[in-house]
Amino acid sequence: MQISGYLASVYGQFRSGSTSSVKNGDATGAPEPTKVSAADAFIKEAQKTPAQRIREELLARHKVSEEDLAAMDPEKRSAIEKEIAEELKRRLAGKDAQRGAAVDLTA
Q1: d(C-alpha 84, C-alpha 88), whole Å
Q2: What global pTM score does this model have?
Q3: For residue 65, is pLDDT > 60?
Q4: Which of 94, 95, 87, 40 is nearest to 59 (CA)?
C-alpha cells in the first residue's frame, strides 16, 4: 500500500523520529511535546499501585483531574474524596471477588 502527499510526509517523519525542522519547538516558538514510547507508558502504568489506578479511574469517571480536584470548593472535593475512599475500601477488600461465592453449582 502506498501513502501519498501529506500523509506520506507525516508518516515518514513519524518513522524517522523527527516531527519538525525547528529544534525545541515549532515555528511559533511553542515547546515540542515530549514523546513517550509505548514501553515507557507501560512501565509507568505498571508501577502504579492498585489504589492509584482506582483513584485515576474515579477521577476520570467524574471528568476531573488532580489539579481540578485541588481547586474545587471543599464540599465537592470532600464528596469526591469520600467516594474514592469508599471505592478503594470496597475493591481492595475483595468484596467484588466474593460475589456469587455462596452459589451452589453442584446441582
Answers
A1: 6
A2: 0.52
A3: yes
A4: 87
Rounded distance between C-alpha atoms, residue 54 and residue 66, angstroms: 13
Q: Is residue 33 packed enough to be buried (19+ CB in 10 Å), middle (13-18) or exposed (0-12)?
A: exposed
| Grid cell of 62 as nine digits | 467524574
Query: Does residue 39 carry a pLDDT above 60?
Result: yes
| Extended beta strands in 19-102, E state | none
Cell 516531527 found at = 19
* Number of neighbours of residue 80 by Cβ within 10 angstroms: 17
pLDDT exceeding 70 applies to what percent of the chain? 57
Is 55 in contact with 88 (CB distance < 8 Å)?
A: yes
